[in-house]
């Protein structure tokens, strides 16, 4: 399975071209590593390398954080029981900061709409 569909790749690249320093795009794609608690909600992809992505990263240790991730590095962690997969049903509805607030509260990435919407600022 490809990590990104063509529309997702296009949106990830478009988001990276946004030079507004206050940007807070909704995540475009959710990746996860089978057999682990590792999850990534990605909103941008470096157009030059298409290897460095920005998003909410959760390595399953209770400390999800916003930052950059090397997709080739993540793929290199695949093994006999671990595969990098794309959640085919995920649609980012809220800004990435909202998912980050929910993740910090729950100590892992949460994507359930009813839970995440509680973290939308008033």
UniProtKB/TrEMBL annotation:
UniProt xrefs under InterPro entries: DUF2958
Annotated Pfam families: DUF2958
Name by which UniProt lists this protein: DUF2958 domain-containing protein
Organism: Pedobacter suwonensis
